[in-house]
Q: What sequence folds into this?
């Protein structure tokens, strides 16, 4: 962090506004990343009380430059990833376009009979079995998404192992004979996360997530996947594409 700038108490600008500007300049200039210094440290840097620092940090949060995570501290917000919700795009494609390093970590898989809603979206009869794959979307070593995907059986038997080896859904689908696909459904909802999801995303349970549902179909129009992605809304924003 840069050294303290002299604060003027006679120029008609509130002290906390001067502190906010100094911190914003540090953030926008790339001199401060990750965790912001705590209130006591900032108060010492600027020679003010903690209440004045608190006003400045609150203003930074309102501008979207920092995020206050209760019990953990205040963090500089990373530039949000644009997730293009297009007909033929997936999250991995958006990362590649943004030149960000991402990967998927498979955490669990199982064959099961899902609920009626999943069966309907996949156009499967009652009692049909699917492969459920749970994974984490990781970008620059940060978990940005908690995902659950459903693939029809017997067509996609073994997809979990292929997914684990290749690390990306579209590569696993290609390995199993799906050369082209498109998104039939894309639905985005703001929801409060379950506590387990909030822990995985390292965010407060009171902070909404982006709940993105997608149904993909193959070239013949047959559903091949229903997926749910729960994104940290501070790190991912959805962009609708025609």
A:
């Amino acid at each position: 962090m840069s050294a303290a700038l002299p604060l003027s108490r006679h120029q008609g600008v509130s002290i906390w506004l001067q502190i906010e500007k100094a911190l914003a300049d540090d953030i926008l200039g790339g001199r401060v990343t990750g965790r912001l210094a705590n209130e006591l440290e900032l108060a010492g840097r600027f020679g003010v009380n903690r209440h004045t620092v608190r006003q400045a940090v609150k203003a930074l949060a309102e501008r979207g430059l920092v995020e206050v995570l209760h019990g953990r501290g205040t963090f500089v917000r990373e530039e949000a990833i644009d997730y293009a919700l297009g007909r033929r795009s997936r999250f991995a494609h958006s990362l590649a376009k943004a030149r960000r390093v991402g990967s998927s970590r498979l955490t669990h898989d199982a064959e099961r009979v899902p609920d009626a809603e999943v069966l309907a979206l996949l156009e499967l009869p009652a009692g049909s079995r699917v492969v459920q794959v749970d994974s984490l979307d990781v970008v620059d070593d940060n978990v940005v998404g908690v995902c659950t995907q459903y693939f029809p059986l017997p067509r996609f038997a073994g997809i979990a192992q292929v997914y684990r080896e290749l690390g990306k859904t579209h590569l696993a689908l290609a390995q199993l004979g799906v050369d082209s696909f498109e998104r039939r459904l894309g639905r985005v909802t703001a929801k409060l996360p379950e506590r387990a999801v909030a822990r995985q995303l390292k965010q407060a349970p009171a902070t909404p997530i982006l709940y993105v549902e997608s149904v993909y179909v193959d070239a013949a129009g047959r559903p091949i996947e229903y997926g749910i992605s729960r994104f940290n809304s501070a790190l991912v924003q959805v962009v609708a594409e025609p």
Remarks:
- The domain at 15-76 is CATH 1.10.10.10 (Arc Repressor Mutant, subunit A).
- The chain has eight helices and ten strands.
- Residues 15-28 form the longest helix (14 residues).
- The radius of gyration is 22 Å.
